[in-house]
Write a structure and sequence with these properties.
Elements lengths: L6 H29 L1 E2 L20 E5 L3 E6 H12 L2 E2 L2 E2 L15 H12 L7 H8 L4 H7 L1 H15 L2 H14 L15 H23 L3 H15 L2 H10 L1
Parallel strand pairs: 1-3
Antiparallel strand pairs: 2-3, 4-5
């Protein structure tokens, strides 16, 4: 409803109004921040570096529930990576990243602030965080869409953190499935914990390949690890000799 001759006048009115609104918002933001508490942590989360000694480009300041926190980006990358790759056994269970000082999950706008700060830093953003960003930091959508990738992470995590007894159960299962390839050797649970540790020491890579073969959703990965497992089982006599020696 505006004639062409009045466009410039309307533009000027809009620009002035926008400047005024932005100035008011900035004033309110500064006023709110002055009222907020500042969490006085002087070191990073590992407490091995002083925050004042760390470059500004490697830190971020976040407002979380009316309190101002300063974090190092590397600490947040580590926490976020661990939360998204969290597992229970071989089951994936991504968690919300929490403020390490309060144990309260960060809000979505905090996650965006962290992500874009990382994007313009020199840090490599882990693939799992990039995928989470792709699905708008929605945990359910992320888990459903990235389940095959998360399963691979779960298998790797199991390989690195599972107990001797949990791994030994898979060794028994592998023995049942590949008894002929394992020279007919019989492995069962009726042995001491110390001997189980010796078995796991020598069969840990076999177990990893076996779990990849059994539980990966990727047929190419399953085939590759089946080939690796069979090749390792070809050297089974030497492996048995090493176990006997131990």
């Amino acid at each position: 409803h505006i004639s062409h001759g009045k466009y410039d006048e309307v533009d000027e009115i809009y620009i002035n109004a926008k400047k005024t609104i932005n100035a008011i918002k900035l004033f309110v933001k500064i006023w709110r921040m002055k009222k907020m508490k500042v969490y006085t942590n002087n070191t990073n989360i590992l407490m091995d570096k002083t925050l004042s000694d760390i470059e500004e480009s490697k830190k971020i300041t976040l407002i979380h529930y009316d309190t101002i926190y300063t974090f190092t980006l590397i600490d947040l990358i580590t926490l976020w990576n661990m939360a998204l790759k969290n597992t229970e056994g071989l089951f994936t269970k991504p968690l919300d990243m929490k403020n390490p000082y309060t144990n309260i999950p960060f809000k979505k706008h905090n996650l965006y602030n962290i992500y874009f700060k990382l994007l313009y830093s020199n840090y490599n953003i882990p693939i799992v965080i990039q995928l989470f960003f792709k699905y708008n930091f929605d945990n359910i959508l992320f888990t459903n869409s990235c389940f095959p990738y998360l399963r691979e992470c779960a298998i790797d995590n199991f390989h690195n953190t599972a107990s001797i007894l949990d791994k030994f159960d898979y060794l028994v299962a592998m023995n049942n499935d590949f008894k002929t390839s394992m020279a007919g050797m019989e492995i069962n649970n009726i042995i001491s914990y110390d001997i189980k540790k010796i078995y796991i020491k020598h069969f840990k890579n076999h177990i990893y390949n076996y779990i990849k073969l059994k539980y990966s959703f990727n047929p190419i990965i399953r085939k590759n690890h089946k080939d690796l497992l069979v090749n390792k089982l070809m050297d089974i006599i030497k492996t048995i000799q090493n176990i006997t020696k131990d």
